[in-house]
Amino acid sequence: MGGKYHFIREEIAKIEGKPAPNIYxxxxxxxxxxxxxxxxxFVPFFQTTSLAETVKVDTPMPxxxxxxxxxxxQNFGYILYKNKIVCKNIEDTVIIRGLKSKLxxxxxxxxxxxxxxxxxxxxxxxxxxxxxVEFNIEKLQFEFSVLVENPGRxxxxxxxSLDGEYKG
Length: 168
Fold this sequence. Notes:
- The protein has 168 residues and is of the alpha+beta class.
- It has helices spanning 3-16, 45-48, 99-102, 159-163, and strands spanning 78-86, 94-97, 106-111, 114-121, 132-135, 141-149.
């Protein structure tokens, strides 16, 4: 700490007529090298999805409006959208467009539980230029999944603006 701080502390102590209290020092240890993580103790993400409540809807909905068994929606966390896709022909590339207007939050894309494309965060200035995800398919039927994270909301502005800030 700077010299001015210590000087002012000592002057105040003189005025009060008692010694300055001890300065607090943190008990937080400096960082050190951690041991390697043993991946055998982890469960793959898609093996855990059966633990979550499943809701079937006709069209993708924001996570706040999905009808769950005990309440309507959730306003935090993750939501996984899944859809079976059947193609007539195997195309070289599948392109999903319109993400700027539909996607709210950070998204990861999966084909049959394998990640495809790059994750997108539409609140980030660089990724707002991205409006589509592209991936190659190798079979006529597959499950396409989008995992959307709610990275938070703005904490200011009027109520009307906040009402429209749905995620998912």
